[in-house]
Amino acid sequence: MALTITEENLRKLVDRLVKDGARVVGPKVAGEMTVYEPLTSGAELAPGTLPRRSAKEAFFPLSETILSFQKGKEGLKVEDVDTNAFPRTVLLGALPCDAAAPQVMDAVFSWDYKDEFYLERRRRTVIVGLSCTSADDSCFCTLVGLAPTDTMGSDLFLTPLAGGGYSCQVVSDRGKEFLAGYPELFAEAATVTPVPPAEPEGTPVDLAKVKLWLEEHFEDEIWEEVADRCVGCGACAFLCPACHCFDIVDEGTEQSGSRRKNWDACAFSKFTNHASGHNPRDVQNKRYRNRFMHKFKYYDDKFGKTLCTGCGRCIRYCPVGIDIKGILEEIGKKALSTKDTKGHEENHHG
Amino acid sequence: MNNSTEKAEQAVTIDISGYDVATAEIRSEAKRLLTEKIVDAVVGYQAGRRKGSAVPVIITDPAQAEKLLFSPACVNNLSIYLTKAKKEIRAKGKLAVVAKGCDLRALAGLVGESQFKREEVVIIGVSCAGVHRAGIQPGEPLTNSTIAKKCRECSVHIPDEADLVVGKLPPLPDLPPKEKELMEKLDAMTPALRWEFWKEQFTRCIRCLACRQVCPFCYCEQCLCDRGRPQAVDTSPRPSGNMGWHIVRAMHLAGRCAGCAECERVCPMDIPLNLLNRKMAEELKELYHYEAGMKPVEKGPLTSYDEKDDQSFIK
């Protein structure tokens, strides 16, 4: 038996949740693009298209106030943000590449410092993932160990059915608990026919070997080849579901203001600019190398995970066509031959 | 801001057979320039992994000249690689650059601003019928629905001032302008409505700074908008700072922007940034009879002072 929900009931679910005061973040059409945004009704839900920006904003907003300050008669008053006031949230209709990313980022946000803002939002959120049924030439989830049907990170997981509606898989206890609140919106079906999942094309890569190759090729001509053209904007990092670097700034007037946590990007030249004026990543290809290394080596070194879910947004929106999928495939190939010819330099690149 | 003419317009395919000619000529010229050591590197386009795509490339080996190409996917304005924002490219030595007519205007502006001397750069100009707009799947044919807005109003299909012009220009269809229509719509708005329009647009800005980074004229080593002490513009991606950032940028580009519209093409949030630059350019034309990027000019109207300047706006 499979649990199912009709399209109509899914929209009703959104309406119910909104009515109950939950923040429902889901894909929504805004102008000519789709974005993950808080929905005001089920009618707004536009599932199935990969939104322009990732779903990480549900936990890690573009800009958030982390404290505010005010000068008054009694001196300076500093006020913390009440994370207990964060709303109960349902992230609904996140495709696997977006649904999986928070689980990857949890490691860094709960490591040496517990980021209460991120973690509190995570604690209050149920993720309802959605099986992916269309891929383009920038998609590569299957190259980074995920799949269009991957339930990683989801609490509940929807699969579009051929005749309309969805089957619903319970992935976690949190999902089970959530489901118990809305039994009348779901039904049981003896058999279901899912819409076939998307099939991203690509040469499979061995991520462990890629990591080994990266360890030995911090200095390599590939970085100039692929990234001399990088212009140093933050489009890749800002659209990425897994990039999580941020900057902290104080803004306001002398009398009052707030401290904010804003997205940052390692492609920006200022990212590593020291107070002395020295910049260890002095040229753009070194900054791109960092992005790649962080995704496929450093994050794995530290947390045992790959910091990329293969959504392809950085490829689609790179102003100069830097193609992480192509680079991963290329390094994947090099990584195989490196092992074969280890110690036999003359046989390299044969 | 979609308009009805878009729907009514018949499908028109643009002849790009001249691009194959351009590709062959770019290759042989790049090979010659590198072999004869006239230049140390050539900045051009090569195929990307995605079928039909083209990406900027910097080649130094004559054998790599075979990789160069020209196609409707050659959207980038490569003049950015010649500015001081890309020191590592300039460090390669003397450069040649592949330039469409619109890109050539930026090059002229950069010469005027002493970014490099004209004789220091070899310009391979391409006769260009147009390139894709943003968001087009690479490999799509060039048609009236896939062509960039700027190309519909292009007046520089043949970059005459280049050292060599390659390719062949086909007879061009007459495409009704789109951006001009948008400009007219905005101009017709009341200031309050226009303010609302831009407020809505800038609310979407995520401050990825792609607009700045692809701009040939945003080569400042210290951007005012990155300054922290004192902070001129809020760096937070919030409405006030976003508005500040885009207005500062438009003002700083007034009289300098050569209209390549790269800022708008690369904006991942689809903000029609070129409307701002175009408005500034129109004002400059009206007030000072000046058009940026037509020829190298050391000091444009906003960086020079003359007693005869219009002062009627000072009240």
Taking all Cα atoms into account, the compactness measure Rg of chain B is 20 Å
Question: Average pLDDT value of chain A?
Answer: 94
| Mean of pLDDT of chain B | 93
Helix count, DSSP H or I runs of 4 or more residues of chain B: 11
| H/E element sequence of chain A | EHEEEEEHHHEEEHEHHHEEHHH
Listing every helix as H and every strand as E from the N terminus to the C terminus, the arrangement of chain B reads HHEEHEHEHEHHHHHH
The tally of structural domains of chain A comes to 2
Give the overall form of chain A. globular
Number of strands of chain B: 5
What count of structural domains of chain B?
Answer: 2
List the total number of helices of chain A: 11
Going across the major beta sheet of chain A, what is the strand order?
3-2-6-7-8-9-1-10
What is the alpha-carbon Rg of chain A in Å? 22 Å
Q: How many strands in all of chain A?
A: 12
Q: Quaternary arrangement of the chains shown?
A: heterodimer
Protein topology:
The complex is a heterodimer of chains A (350) and B (315).
Chain A: E1 2-5, H1 7-19, E2 23-30, E3 33-38, E4 63-72, E5 75-80, E6 89-94, H2 96-99, H3 101-109, H4 116-123, E7 125-130, E8 156-160, E9 166-170, H5 173-179, E10 187-189, H6 207-216, H7 221-227, H8 235-239, E11 246-252, E12 256-263, H9 284-303, H10 313-316, H11 324-340
Parallel strand pairs in A: 2-6, 6-7, 7-8
Antiparallel strand pairs in A: 1-9, 1-10, 2-3, 4-5, 4-12, 8-9, 11-12
Helix pairs in contact in A: 6-9, 6-11, 7-9
Chain B: H1 4-8, H2 17-35, E1 41-47, E2 54-59, H3 87-90, E3 95-99, H4 101-112, E4 121-126, H5 149-152, E5 164-166, H6 179-188, H7 191-203, H8 210-213, H9 239-253, H10 262-266, H11 274-288
Polypeptide structure, described:
Chain A is of the alpha+beta class and 350 residues long. Chain A contains eleven helices and twelve strands. Chain A has an eight-stranded mixed sheet. Chain A has a four-stranded antiparallel sheet with strand order 5-4-12-11, with no helix packed on it. The longest helix of chain A has 20 residues. Chain A is globular and about 65 Å long. Chain A starts with a strand and ends in a 10-residue tail after the last helix. Chain B is an alpha/beta fold and 315 residues long. In chain B, strands 2-1-3-4-5 form a five-stranded mixed sheet. The N terminus of chain B is likely disordered. At the A-B interface, helix 8, strand 11, strand 12 and helix 11 of A face strand 2, helix 3, helix 8 and helix 10 of B.
